[in-house]
Amino acid sequence: MPATNVPFEPDELDAINRAAQASGKSARQYIKDAALSAALGRQEAFLSAALTVGEHTREAFQLQFSETEEQRALRAAEAAAAREVHDEDEGRTAA
């Protein structure tokens, strides 16, 4: 298994050893747990932020491109008016 050596100042190593002992772990396991917690915590924070941004983007997209009943009625009226104008133009062209 790959390993790494991390140098600590004597007072830092004493603090780690005391904290590890208080938690019932070896210094090695204590350091490993802390490193993994920090690394995975950043990954989880990034994923959480990405999901939050995605949700806000989805909501904004829906608000931007959703239409109300009134907007649908106006669009239908515009389409009917356009058909009427088109039909009138067709009638003039045929005459």
Q: Would you list the SSEs in sequence order as H and E? A: HHH
Which overall shape is indicated by the principal axes computed on the Cα atoms?
Answer: rod-shaped
Percentage of helical residues?
over 70%
Major sheet size, sense and barrel closure: none
Summed up, the helix count is 3
Indicate how many domains the architecture comprises.
Answer: 1
Provide the residue-averaged pLDDT.
Answer: 89
Taking the alpha carbons of the first and last residues, their distance comes to: 91 Å
Q: What's the total number of strands? A: 0
Helix/strand/pairing category = mainly alpha
Radius of gyration: 33 Å
Contiguous low-pLDDT stretches (5 residues minimum) are: none
Q: What share of residues are in beta strands?
A: under 5%
Textual characterization of the structure:
The structure is a single chain. This protein has 95 residues and is mainly alpha-helical. The protein has one domain (10-94). 83% of the residues lie in helices and 0% in strands. It has 3 helices and no strands. The longest helix is centred in the middle third of the chain and has 39 residues, at 27-65. The mean pLDDT is 89.
